[in-house]
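User: These chains co-purify. Model them together.
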Amino acid sequence: MAVNARARLLSTAETLFYAHGIRAVGVERILSESGVGRASFYRHFAGKEALVTAVLEGRDVRWRAWLSERVAAHGGHPLHLFDALAERFATQDFRGCVAINTMTEIADPASPACRMAALHKTRVIDLVEQLLRDADVPEPGERARQFVLLMDGAIVTALREGTPDAAWRARGIAEALLAA
Amino acid sequence: MAVNARARLLSTAETLFYAHGIRAVGVERILSESGVGRASFYRHFAGKEALVTAVLEGRDVRWRAWLSERVAAHGGHPLHLFDALAERFATQDFRGCVAINTMTEIADPASPACRMAALHKTRVIDLVEQLLRDADVPEPGERARQFVLLMDGAIVTALREGTPDAAWRARGIAEALLAA
DNA sequence: GTGAAACCGTACTGATCGGTTCCGTTTTGT
DNA sequence: ACAAAACGGAACCGATCAGTACGGTTTCAC
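Assistant: Joint model of the four components:
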């Protein structure tokens, strides 16, 4: 129980922040649920804000890896992005996109958390653009931005509706877009 | 200074909640910035949560009225929804959609605030559906849900980018959708 | 085996949270 | 003019916030 304090902090914080929001989760709760001592926390992180940015960093890497893997599993076509989203929307713990939630909650665009969230989105755009290039879709740059707009709209809608339907709705729109 | 305490509370709270988030704004700040006494606040509202739902109610009514008016001013076609959004995105105080921000921040779907936010979105869908009917667009029900997904995607994107570009991007997608 | 490093738990700080209560003043209806 | 209602200000309440300090324990490298 005395090793990996940092990893446990990151894991517990990620779960709690995602489920309840960043402001809603105090350091107290993260410590008690992770079993990490208070001093150990401040030995690993300068403060709560540093923990938040570290969580967002890890989330960015892991989420893009997951998305790439699932799209590839479905066949690798850009439209399969929405099949991956549908899978995600159906999971029990789904509560939207960490980056979107962070930007709407923290408000200050200059804060490290918001900067990290914005960076995540640009990286996702790059990922989508590469998928579009691989599929020989014309104007992949602009198309990628359109696709991410659709994905974000689907995420917000799925959070509100509590069903994966929004993924299929967004997929239908994307199909119309590619056919045009 | 001793009249309209309720109205001043609602106005101040709406501004602060929208700019900084609900959790980030304490009752203390609302009182000092509105000039309303603490006792007066709890005479008008059962608590902070009641104030939040009242603010969301007012916002819902006012925002739909504003949207209808702006769409009509642009010509009344459903595509003009995105012209209205572009106007909104360009305003200085734009910080996304109150309903989306509330749902991502409060997390609990059963809370009065989230219920009110969800209700707002369904009312917006109804508004969009009526616009589509008036324009003789086929399948207005499903189209309305697609349009609102596009609008929500545009709102989230505009919040991230800080420019009105997302409105034009969403408009382009909507045009492709109507042409298909 | 021994010392250093990492660890957990507890007690504490000052600030702020939402909410209650009381008091004296101002506004309003009649 | 006068009473009732609405009001602002301030002193409180217990709880929780992020962060610090200290003391005793476990882990690990040499």
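Residues 1-3, 26-28, 38-39, 42, 47-48 of chain A lie near DNA strand D (CB under 10 Å from a C1').
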